[in-house]
Amino acid sequence: MREEIDEADLAPETSLINKGNQESPTTTTLLFTTLVAVSGSFVFGSAIGYSSPVQSDLTKDLNLSVAEYSLFGSILTIGAMIGAAMSGRIADLIGRRATMGFSEMFCILGWLAIYLSKVAIWLDVGRFLVGYGMGVLSFVVPVYIAEITPKELRGGFTTVHQLMICLGVSVTYLLGSFIGWRILALIGMVPCVIQMMGLFIVPESPRWLAKVGRWEEFEIALQRLRGESSDISYESREIKDYTRRLTHLSEGSIVDLFQRRYAKSLFVGVGLMVLQQFGGVNGIAFYASSIFESAGFFSKIGMIAMVAVQIPMTTIGVLLMDKSGRRPLLLVSATGTCIGCFLVGLSFSLQLVSLLSGETSYIALTGVLMYTGSFSLGMGGIPWVIMSEDQPEAW
């Protein structure tokens, strides 16, 4: 829980001084470093989007049963759970940049295993390795971006993480509609390689360097990110002060979460994440192609339609998040996902009773598109934002 403590809670006196400061420049180094980091977000999205468009070809080529393919699709989340649970300790031990490289090695090995697979077991091994790497990336990428950007630019830069996840899913959906599953697995390695090459160039997180006491490297990294002509003296002092205060805080334990004063925040945070993960997103994302085929609709057209809805709705959600507020946007998004799930279920129910047999495919398409668009609007990103904002000062 140490990483979740807000700087403003630890150093309130410095926030007043900072109001008079001139905005930090957006340097080429900062933009390039962010681009390298969010390549990992693209990897995250491409891993999620892989299973849906390749389902029919993959099951035919390797003669997989429904149970075997279901295991292949779902084992990604098991690997991601393990990776996410370990990511914080790894990032604190070896640094943010090395952690991203570490996770990409698992992703590359996983994509290679999928590409070379001739039996189901190697498909599952590859998918698990990709999931593990994806789980580590899900933590370290947004943390790294938040730590390298100035306060006044942090919100805008961190939203790029969610946009790139959406772009990764959408591009994989689109490419998977036209190319084979082995080639798509090879393409999945491209952003992994791009990030690994970029990591040799970009600086380490200045905040992590300060945390481990590498002060000279901290100054160099911060100066690179802010520009050679920028005055980093104030920000440097602020980070050093925050780091020193942080070292005097006791390490929290999991038991501390269940104190009465944390009950509301814990309930809201966990409730939102449960709503996000158990609201059907994995079923739609992993098996959209199968849903379209079962409903009697052309899967390739359906996948392209999902791409056409997903990217603009994610963009709209990012733009509205600070203007409309988290709660109203979340309510609209949750309502849309509920209606989308209802329409998909209704289409298959009508098929069973042989009513509106010709129109049920369009009802299923409408439901999937409504669910995808609504989830991209708010449910995909807002719970993560609220988790980081809705915390007591004592945390």
Could you explain the architecture of this structure?
It is globular, with a radius of gyration of 22 Å. The protein is mostly helical and 395 residues long. It is built from 18 helices and no strands. 78% of the residues lie in helices and 0% in strands. The protein has helices spanning 7-10, 12-18, 28-49, 55-62, 66-94, 96-116, 120-148, 151-176, 181-198, 206-211, 215-226, 233-247, 263-277, 281-294, 299-324, 326-352, 360-379, 382-389.
In short:
Helix content is 78%, strand content 0%. It is an all-alpha fold and 395 residues long. It starts with 6 loop residues before the first helix and ends in a 6-residue tail after the last helix.
Determine the structural class based on helices, strands and strand pairing.
mainly alpha
Unreliable segments of 5+ consecutive residues: 1-22
Task: Give the N-terminus to C-terminus distance in angstroms.
Answer: 7 Å
Number of helices: 18
Q: Give a count of the beta strands, DSSP E runs of length 2 or more.
A: 0
Gross morphology: globular
